[in-house]
Amino acid sequence: MNKRGFPIQIMLVILSFILLVPVVKAAGPKKPLKCVAPAYLKPGDKVALISPSYYCSMETAFRAADTLRSWGYEPVIGPNVGKQYLEHYAGTVEERLADLRWALKDPDIKAILCLRGGYSTLHLVEGLSLKELAASPKWLIGYSDITTLLSMEACAGVMSIHGVMGCNIAKQDSVNVQQSCTLMRNLLQGQVPRYELPAHNENILGRATGTLVGGNLATFAPLLCSQVNEIGQSDIILFVEEVEETHHNIDRLFNMLKMSGVLAHCKGIILGDFTDCENDVGYESVEAMLRQYIEPYHIPLLCGFPAGHEKLNLPFVIGAPVTLDVRADSATLSFDIPGEQREIYPREIIFQDAEFAECLNIQPSKDTILVKLYWRLAKAELLESSLAELDSVLQTVCTESNRFELTYWDYTIAESSSYPATRRGAFLYQRMESICPNSRVTKMTIKHEIIERYTEKQPGYRVLMICPVRE
Question: What is the mean pLDDT of residues 364-374?
Fold first, then answer.
């Protein structure tokens, strides 16, 4: 070491220490993360539609507005929606911020629905203060890249909803999307879900309470070095999901959470969907890979929660106090917030192509019931005689069992789309729930076939098979 430079180096070290002392004090322990719940919506309330991330067409915005109107709300489209900047972005940073501020400041707007995700909400972090969000608590809804805004809301002390966006409610093209939209609509009205979920082989058993935070992993991780850092002295339940990331990138991002101290504050972890994620490291699954990070903390782990980028995307409240209970046979996620608590047993509905011969060749057991259903043309409306028969059957079987599997055969003439079949399947699912509120459908399969014409072998009715599940 050069002796001449030694005193200078010592002085620099001492000076650095002096300068750092105030910074260390300022970065002391944070207060526990406590968020308020915005008011639930009432008929006639205004809901803003904005595009804070990627571009969304006006056609999609109008269709989403129509759906909100059918739910009893008054949709208001942001002034800059429909703008496009540099091919992908929904306008400039200033334009996207302007729409968000407009929705926040208007006292008549009671909720903000993001139209789509993508990338670029990170651009808004430095231009938006947490005080602006705290000053006007209202439900902000979205997922994926909208994780940034949900996290900002939590840091500002306001709860938000991780759930379907405008692009989803505009095109409800499957029963699972319809189920997700219905649950989100119900949550906005004050029906708080208590999710009952099946067991998963990578789960870690245990029970924990804490504040729910998180979202898309690649969007959440960079926030830890910004003002949007929900991790302090709080006890948190962390949720993460991902789409189109390789397993080694997911491993890197989750390792960032570990090294930054996030996992040390977790009382429990929930892993959602990992959609189209390439397995390039050799683990059996993403869940198996991430479990190695979680096991040393001795906290419960719930895997396979249906939220993220699949069609079944269950809504939940970011910033809410929750209880996570992972058991050997099942798991429960409940929200300790005001509202009407409602048990939800989410099951993805399977859609398949079929041959009508399958329906004709059914050999039902004594426990299986077949119901012939006549619909009004292509609509999800049963003829009165069929509706009466269905309700009668449901009332009978619901007294004998509380768990069911449904198989529905739907065949239509010269229809290129399977959408009418999904609408009718959704109607049957919801009818089962309304007639049998204490029962649950553990599995539903919709089988669809296009036929040339109705014949004696292919008559003008559809068939529903109801199979009680014996414990």
Answer: 83
Backbone angles phi, psi at 426, to 5 degrees: -65, -40
Q: Record the tokens describing residue 124, joined without a space.
A: 């808004």
- DSSP secondary structure letters along 293-350: HHGGG---EEE--S-SSSS----EEET-EEEEEE-SSEEEEEE-SSSEEEEE---PEE
Confidence of residue 50 (pLDDT cuts 50, 70, 90): very high
Cα 442 to Cα 421: distance, rounded to the nearest angstrom: 20
- For residue 168, pLDDT beyond 60: yes
- Across the chain, mean pLDDT equals 87
Classify burial at 261, counting beta carbons within 10 Å of its beta carbon; exposed 0-12, middle 13-18, buried 19 or more: exposed
Scored b (16 or more CB within 10 A) or e, 274-311 reads beebeeeeebebbbebbbeebeebebbbbbbbbbbbbb
Is residue 30 within 8 Å of residue 233, measured between CB atoms? yes
Q: Tell me the Ramachandran region of residue 414: left when phi exceeds 0, alpha when psi lies from -120 to 50, beta otherwise.
A: left
Fold of 46-186: Rossmann fold (3.40.50)
User: Residue 31: which pLDDT band, with cuts at 50, 70 and 90?
Assistant: low
- pLDDT given for residue 418 in this prediction: 60
pTM exceeds cut of 0.85? no
Phi/psi of residue 380, nearest 5 degrees: -90, 50
pLDDT score recorded for residue 27: 37
Domain spans, the chain: 46-186, 194-344, 349-468
Q: How would CATH label the architecture of 349-468?
A: 2-Layer Sandwich (3.30)
Alpha-carbon distance values, 425 to 291, 309, 343 (Å): 37, 22, 21
Mean pLDDT of 396-400: 80
Say if domain 194-344 classifies as CATH 3.50.30.60: yes
Q: Can you tell me the distance from the alpha carbon of 370 to that of 350, in angstroms, rounded to the nearest whole number?
A: 19
